[in-house]
Amino acid sequence: PFTVNAAVPLPRFEAEVREGRGAELLKPLESLLPDIPAVVVHLDAVERVRNGSVLLPVHCASGQWGFPDAQAHAAWKILDPSGNLLALARPAPEFGGLHPFLVIRR
User: Fold this and answer.
1) Would you say 52 and 92 are in contact if contact means Cβ atoms under 8 Å apart?
2) Is the separation of the CB atoms in 57 and 95 below 8 Å?
């Protein structure tokens, strides 16, 4: 979770940016929304996510997701095999999968 104690004052951040170290103070996208479960997709499914296509269990790393469980959550974080955030997805029960609704372009 994010706390005031972990916050960086703007003058310090600006100084770090001038020194070329500003990125070190930024939280990675993957750490956002810690209460949303995550699923890792296979490398060959990354393009499906980027296109907003429905993900099926076959596209996900084994043992990470089974369809009844997908319905238990309103949203899921979709990660690539390296753990980078690709998208947020909603259950798509009509297709038996997850549908990306917010795709992160990097």
Assistant:
1) no
2) no
- In this structure, the number of other CB atoms found within 10 A of the CB of residue 97 comes to 20
pTM of the model: 0.79
pLDDT more than 90, % of the chain: 54
Give the span between the Cα atoms of 95 and 61, in whole angstroms. 19
Element (H, E) at 17: helix 10-18
Q: Supply the DSSP symbol for 96.
A: T
- Across the chain, mean pLDDT equals 87
And the tokens for 104?
């992160």
SS3 state at 13: helix
Report yes or no: 73 and 91 within 8 Å, Cβ to Cβ: yes
- Distance (Å, rounded) from C-alpha 96 to C-alpha 67? 7
